[in-house]
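thought: user wants a sequence for this fold. calling inverse folding tool.
action: design(structure=
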């Protein structure tokens, strides 16, 4: 008996295997579409975007307009409309960053730039991605 792989299964597998995705946001000032490559973190069915400490344009754009396009581009090529949920609560941020240290490619980034978790919690952008059902 042959089993079929659903679109949702393909997306979950791609999220687990492919750490880089693109996102297209709308510029908060220019109103122009901006596409960038970013690390994606997937764990327990949840998708997160983060970056180095600072105030990147992609994060400011998502705070101003939470609708964006999430682009899978490696094992699965797919453009998915999504909504961003910026995570601003310190306790939730700490819980997410602590989990990321152990499960994702973020641990490599932590070590690469030698930051402590308190610095990530205080200064890094953090967004949960909610993919829109199609």
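)
observation: tool returned 134 residues.
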């Amino acid at each position: 008996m042959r089993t079929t792989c659903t679109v949702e299964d393909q997306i979950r597998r791609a999220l687990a295997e492919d750490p880089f995705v693109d996102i297209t946001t709308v510029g908060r000032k220019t109103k122009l579409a901006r596409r960038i490559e970013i690390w994606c973190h997937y764990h327990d069915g949840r998708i997160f975007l983060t970056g180095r400490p600072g105030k990147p344009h992609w994060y400011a754009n998502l705070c101003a307009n939470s609708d964006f396009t999430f682009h899978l581009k490696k094992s699965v090529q797919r453009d998915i409309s999504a909504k961003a949920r910026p995570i601003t609560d310190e306790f939730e941020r700490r819980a997410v960053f602590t989990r990321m240290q152990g499960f994702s490619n973020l641990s490599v980034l932590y070590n690469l730039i030698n930051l402590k978790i308190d610095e990530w919690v205080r200064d890094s952008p953090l967004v949960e991605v909610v993919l829109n059902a199609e």
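thought: summarizing for user.
answer: Here is the designed sequence. Strands lie at 20-26, 33-43, 46-50, 67-73, 77-86, 126-131.
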